[in-house]
Amino acid sequence: MPVEFSGTDGGDTHGVSAKAPPPAPVTGARVRTHRGYGGNRVLLTATPARTATLPAGGTGDTEAGEPPLKVVTTRHPWRWVAAAGIAVLLAMVASALITNPAWEWEVVGEYLFAPSVLRAVVFTLELTALGIVFGFLLGTVLALMRLSRNPLLNSVAWGYIALFRSVPLILQLLFWYNLALLYPRISFGVPFGPAFFDIGTMDLIGPVTAAALGLALHQAAYAAEIVRAGLLSVDHGQREAAAALGIPRTRQLFRIVLPQAMRSIVPTAGNEIIGLVKGTSVVYIMALPELFYQVQVIYNRNGRVIALLLVATIWYLVMTSVMSVAQHYIERYYGRGRA
Q1: Whose CB has fewer CB within 10 Å in the chain, the N or C terminal residue?
Q2: Contact criterion met (CB below 8 Å) for 221 and 161
Q3: Of 209, 14, 248, whose CA–CA distance to 130 is shortest?
Q4: Is residue 154 within 8 Å of residue 324, measured between CB atoms?
């Protein structure tokens, strides 16, 4: 029969029930202690006589004369079968890559660090940087316009996002590249008034400018939705508290709302940046010396198609892997203090 009594941590036994006599010694009794608000509560439970033994390789109580209990782990045979199947497939892929001479790994090593390929890698990164920086700057402005209560600003931002997300990137690049067919010269002056000076469109918007402009404007449409979703993820009470303290709206945005929104912005923005690294390959239609165009030039000259495609694959893999690692650390930085 369980008997309860309460006391303080110092060993006092105040509050013992008068109805329950002091418990008699119980053979093999178990003692369970529960921490309570007013002290310790000790529960003595009488159990049959048991012999405490420590069997080899384990611990626990066993009945007198009975063998110790054996712990049996759950078996997962299909898990090992799946792992073995995947290991066999990986071995087959590795064997096909190493033993097949058609891959021409010696040619891959010859051109992997060729000066023309390295210049193409640098140019690819430059196009990516231009597209991301100007794309997210414009995208942030569009996101703020989408959140504005002004119907004109909201409608213009919505129309821009809908248009540039609907038109393929390659068409946008071709449009900006051939803008001179629509407007041979671009004038600067008073709107709907006299022009101060003008300049030829071909002189103003060259192939590199057209590529950077097309990438930035295309990326801005997606960046606007990413930034808008991040701003909406911040609790509205943060803005209300900042307004109650009299903090200016610009400071509210850059010091309170945006740092918290970055927790939601960074993962998706990182995916967009990695996608844009690979998306720069479409500028080959403008004969710009980015990575994909450069390997095309080389294999059209020497006929080593697979080897040069492997060179491009390795460099794209290196660039995206480095960006993925950077994204991980940026996410961890903005995720500080999250429960």
Answers
A1: C
A2: yes
A3: 209
A4: no
pTM: 0.71
Strand, helix or coil for residue 285: helix
3-state secondary structure of 62: strand
Rg (CA), the chain: 35
Report whether 221 contacts 164 (CB < 8 A).
yes
The CA distance from 327 to 274, in Å, is: 10
**Beta strands 51-52 and 61-62, pairing class:** antiparallel
Separation CA 307–CA 111 (nearest Å): 9
Residue appearing with tokens 């609790």: 235
Residues 267-322: tens digit of each pLDDT: 999 999 999 999 898 998 888 889 999 999 999 998 889 999 999 999 999 999 99
Residue with tokens 């000066």: 115
Per-residue H/E/C for 206-248: CHHHHHHHHHHHHHHHHHHHHHHHHHHCCCHHHHHHHHHCCCC
Q: How far apart are CA 270 and CA 190, in angstroms?
A: 40
